[in-house]
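Record type: monomer structure entry
Structure origin: computed from sequence
Chain ID: A
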Amino acid sequence: MTATKESVDRFYEFARRKLEAAEAEVSWDELLIEWQSDCDRDATNRAIREGLDDVDAGRHQPATEVMQELRSEFGFGE
């Protein structure tokens, strides 16, 4: 992820909320790890929603067809 003013602002707000809610000291490493985990989770959830939208819109192919195409393309037998 490239640092932008917006991403720094979001991290600042995230860190501020975490520090205000913390009952003990929180290290920079802990904040960064949790921030990255949250960002990864958001990206994963976004990708899942996009995939479900594709299925709902009929933009999908049955796995059996995909596997058959891959077998044919790469010369694998049944």
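Annotation 1: The chain has a mean pLDDT of 93.
Annotation 2: Residues 5-74 form one domain.
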